[in-house]
Amino acid sequence: MIRRLMRWQDIGDMTCSVARALSVVGDRWTLLVLRDAFLGVRRFDDFHADLGTTRHRLAARLRKLVDHGVLERVPYAERPPRFEYRLTEKGRDLYPVVVSLTRWGDRWMAGRDGPPVELVHRGCGRRIMPTLACPECGEPVGARDMQVRPGPALRKEWKARLQRPREELR
Fold first, then answer.
1. I need a labelling partner for 161 at 20 to 30 A (CA). Which of 8, 60, 140, 169 fits?
2. Residues near 119 by Cβ (< 8 Å), separated by ≥ 6?
3. Residue 14: its pLDDT value, please?
4. How far apart are CA 50 and CA 82, in angstroms?
5. What's the gap between Cα 80 and its chain centre?
6. What is the dihedral angle through the alpha carbons of 85, 88, 90, 92, rounded to the nearest 10 degrees?
7. What letters, b where the CB count within 10 A reaches 16 and e where it falls short, cover 53-79?
8. What pLDDT was estimated at residue 13?
């Protein structure tokens, strides 16, 4: 079987949800843009001032997030035309990802002064760190509590591979 090297720009073509997600949000600047969006930053100049990256890099990350439906450009001024960036439903669904990275960073990467931010639940006013839990029984889950089995996309790919003529597999 001939294997070709996977290029970063092709990672979104893999039959893997992690790879496909990384093709959209898998670089440090994009994750920092998302972090700021969850903190309420909406305007280009505010993202730029907070992140300190080049305007070109920031524009490219914002454009990619808009193109993939994670953010939407919403006009806030007509003369001159000005836009802000708001999280879409697809973007808001990334909140657990950002919180998980925050939780890991707070545990393993925080400095001597402790974590830089605290998450406070608006409903009860308590400081919390959300955790993964089973939606059926409510028990917290970690890597050792889970098992993985092939889903429909992977089963379909495996079936297609088995049906290929042997010559193609070399």
1. 8
2. 99, 102, 127, 128, 129, 130
3. 85
4. 19
5. 32
6. 90
7. beeeebeebbebbbeeebbeeeeeeee
8. 83
Structure tokens at 79: 């003369």
User: Could you identify the residue written with the tokens 């959209």?
Assistant: 24
Q: Whole-model pTM?
A: 0.85
Supply 161's token pair. 């591979």
Please report the pLDDT score of residue 2 as a whole number: 55
What pLDDT, on the 0 to 100 scale, is given for residue 15? Answer: 83
| Residue located via tokens 């454009």 | 63
Distance CA 102, CA 108 (A): 10
Structure tokens at 36: 């700021």
d(CA 123, CA 96): 18
The segments of the chain whose pLDDT lies below 50 read 1
| 47 and 35 Cβ atoms separated by less than 8 Å | no
